[in-house]
Amino acid sequence: MRLKDDQRGQIRIIEALFASLLILSTIALVPSQLGAEQTHYSTLYSQGTQVLISLDSNAMLSSTIECGNWTLLKNCVQSMLPVSLWFNLTVFDSSMVCLNDVFVSNGSPVNDEIVAVNYVCASSSADYAVYIVQLQLAEVS
């Protein structure tokens, strides 16, 4: 490629072209990474919601909470989730007072990216009560 007399102007145009290509390629790559993180969050949130809905489908969740059988609740959640997921379940009453006095969890969190799923559950007994169940999930790395 042969440059004309005013070489500085042509070099600046080529430099601007490379700079714009660099900026456009960076802009094109950033949304794909954010989409992957959003998909990961959606997957964990979906799994947590499915577990809580399945437990509540036959009023097992509210009856287990009312009985205070935290071991049964832990075993049920643990059996419904893959082994590669860490979970922690906390139950609150309508005043946001924690009801479970023991940890309903399968260990300690091993990842900083924790997804929390909140679920409102109503009692099926004569003593009407509302419970807020929070299920936290994270992948084991």
Q: Can you put this structure into words, describing what you see?
A:
This protein is of the alpha+beta class. It has one domain (7-139). Helices cover 49% and strands 20% of the residues. The protein is built from three helices and four strands; from the N terminus they run αααββββ. It has helices spanning 7-56, 60-67, 70-80; strands at residues 85-92, 104-105, 115-122, 130-139. The protein has a four-stranded antiparallel sheet. The N and C termini lie far apart (53 Å).
Secondary structure layout:
Layout: H1 7-56, H2 60-67, H3 70-80, E1 85-92, E2 104-105, E3 115-122, E4 130-139
Antiparallel strand pairs: 1-2, 1-4, 3-4
Number of helices: 3
Alpha carbon gap, first and last residue: 53 Å
Q: Mean pLDDT, as a whole number?
A: 83
Radius of gyration: 26 Å
Query: Strand count, sense and closure of the main sheet?
Result: 4 strands, antiparallel
Low-confidence stretches: none
The best one-word shape is elongated
Q: What string gives the helices and strands in order?
A: HHHEEEE
Biggest sheet, strands in spatial order? 2-1-4-3
Number of domains: 1
- What is the SS-derived class? alpha+beta
